[in-house]
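Blinded run. Sample ID left blank on purpose so nobody reads anything into the name before looking at the predicted structure. Input follows.
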Amino acid sequence: MGDRPRYSHDQLEQYFNRIALPEQNRLHSVAAVPDDVKLSYLSLLNKHNIVRIPFENLTLHYSWHRTINVRPQHLFNKIVPPPSRRGGYCMEANSLFHTVLLSLGFQVYMAGARVYSKEAGKYGGFSHCVNIVIIGKDRFMVDVGFGANGPTAPARLRPNEPRPHIEGTEALMRFVHESIPQQVDQGQKVWIYQHQISSDAEWVPMYCFVDIEFLLEDIRGMNLSPWKSPSSWFTQKVVLSRFTTDAEDEAHESAFMSDKAVADGRIDGALILFQDTLKWRREGQTVQIARFETEERRLDAMKKYFGIEFDEEDREAIRGTTGELSQVNFAI
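Blinded prediction complete.
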């Protein structure tokens, strides 16, 4: 097995605290447990991770350095220790989870993915990544870094098997195993992750991914696309999202991301903050919670719904950029 960074016993404990994993559910090694227990534990970690650790690009807007470092130790320091409530985009979130799974003894590797643009009608280059976890004779795709349309649980890699995206809603997800139109060699197949918002809607490709292992060096190279590309919307718009549980309620603000809400609730939707709008997609319905007229109101919402606060230096870093909100920008 390749030489990969691992997190220590103490770091894993800090991670378990970060995702509100109950003490009685904590395992530090899955090496000796049956396959069904491995899968159950993987599913539990996945659920807690996507509720507690948000998908976000805030470093590109609320920092003086605008640097995205995907090395495992840096990601741990950014996302895990208190008082952090930070997350990251795909390379960050999936790289952190990858290192956690390796440290717990899972057989896992990372694979590169190409995101589909519905507007352009084609896939981009490698700018996303997923984890492939092998349990027994099955492989599961795990993605904790794609936002609200990403999978909410480990998904067995079998083609043409629709499964619920979020229990209790009409939304479905599935894989197909085929070539994409942009390929010269149509004999080469890739896995395509598709999403269907309701039973009468079309299946929409989200991304495709290959079935070979990507090295940490590959991930660092791919990270340059969302971080540095002049066409990357990550550098232009603020995005922040996380999945929610049915134990969270607007009427009880203290329940947002509380340990009890994460542990006892089932995933029922997602909070999505995109530039000047906050929406809650819940039980298959989307409700707009707020539209922000100023930067201050957006920062207040980040604190309330995501637990994220910035110091004065980071708050000032967005001033004068395309991502900033102000009365003037809003009026235009």
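Unblinding after everyone has recorded impressions. The first helix runs from residue 9 to 18.
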